[in-house]
Amino acid sequence: MTDAQETAADSTLRTTGGAPPDDGGSSATEAPIPLLEPQDGVPPVIADEASLAGVIAAFAAGTGPVAVDAERASGYRYGQRAYLVQLRRAGAGTALIDPVACPDLSGLGDALAGAEWVLHAATQDLPCLREIGMVPEVVFDTELAGRLAGFPRVGLGAMVEGVLGYVLEKGHSAVDWSTRPLPEPWLRYAALDVELLVDLRDALEKELDRQGKLEWARQEFDAIASAPPAEPRKDPWRRTSGMHKVRRRRQMAVVKELWETRDRIARRRDVSPGKVLSDAAIVEAALAVPPNVHALAALNGFGHRMGRRQLEQWQAAVDRARALSESGLPQPGQPVTGPPPPRAWADKDPAAAARLSAARAAVTALAERLNMPQENLIAPDTVRRVCWEPPVSPDAGSVGAALAAYGARPWQIEQVAPVLVEALAR
């Protein structure tokens, strides 16, 4: 720890009544220490431009990495927007910002330009942060660092407890963060989420360095920071839960019409689509293709609590699907741009199936030796693509080039290419 971090830890220990873990960790015999209060108390929520200007100035003058977190209202509101942003930096303390009241945080993002942002599961928070003008140049992802280092549990609470010896209270992780005003216990929870994030980052950096994986982690973090925004999904209605039960094209059309109707209503009302109509109800209606409101009302999910007007709007969607011509019905599946499903390889190309079996076994063994999840060593889809269409003469150079074309980082190519060459040669 730095001197500032040791001071922060000592202050926290005075609050919790515990003793500091040695070297940022806790021994197996020491009981974890409940972290009950933020070091500086729960800060006020920043909800006006004047207060935001003060936060921007404070964080611009701060030093070192900045811990960043965001709270969404998944399951309550439409979309994945941020409803609270938490930050902590040495010299600036902790800030809680209401992005509903202050929807443009680009000034804060500019003030933190060049600073390393420490996030836990960065890919979950970066899209909603980008929407309000906060885009990091440098990232340290403590969840991904934990995966690369071989930790069996990489949730924030588990990591803080296992690495730093503190217990975070996680009872408010799934609450409705769009609530206003936010209750004080929720704000305390939110502040504690960034309280020790930089300390966790420092401890994980040391562990990655000890294992010889620090450069690997840096390449992964660079890939996260430089990744473009995700493209909208094509035909998102196809991801309706239970879709595997829907076999006929007419039934697929019912799913599509109901899904799109639900989405328009949810967007307009700013509520989670599942609160408008469940996926299970959509699939139930698709399988039955009810001819009228009376038949629809008899299905699960369209019971007596649903009013006549609501039933009529859902039946109208079903009727639109029933009225489509055969040529207007959805196709059974989305166009396949990559290899077929692995279960079909043995019939389509037995040699490719043998290559994939050998490659999977080799990659699994390598991941075990490196003590990390296989999917973090190399994307399974990348392995499938290389095995389906391998280089004409598979050697380290050609296999490495193929991996790079599919987005593998240099460290992944260095580790994986040799075992894939051997597997492809078999």
From TrEMBL:
Keyword Nuclease: yes
Organism annotation: Streptomyces poonensis
Pfam families to which the protein is assigned, alphabetical: DNA_pol_A_exo1 (PF01612), DNA_pol_A_exoN (PF18305), HRDC (PF00570)
Single Gene Ontology BP annotation: nucleobase-containing compound metabolic process
PANTHER family: RIBONUCLEASE D
Classification of source organism: Bacteria, Bacillati, Actinomycetota, Actinomycetes, Kitasatosporales
Gene3D superfamilies per the UniProt record, alphabetical: HRDC domain, Ribonuclease H-like superfamily/Ribonuclease H
Region (Disordered): 1-40
GO molecular function terms noted in the UniProt entry: 3'-5' exonuclease activity; nucleic acid binding; nucleotide binding
InterPro entries: 3'-5'_exonuclease_dom (IPR002562), Exo_C (IPR041605), HRDC-like_sf (IPR010997), HRDC_dom (IPR002121), HRDC_dom_sf (IPR044876), RNase_D-like (IPR051086), RNaseH-like_sf (IPR012337), RNaseH_sf (IPR036397)
Keywords on record: Exonuclease, Hydrolase, Nuclease
Keyword DNA damage annotated: no
Superkingdom classification of source: Bacteria
Protein name in UniProt: 3'-5' exonuclease
HRDC domain sequence ranges: 248-328
Polar residues compositional bias, start-end: 1-15
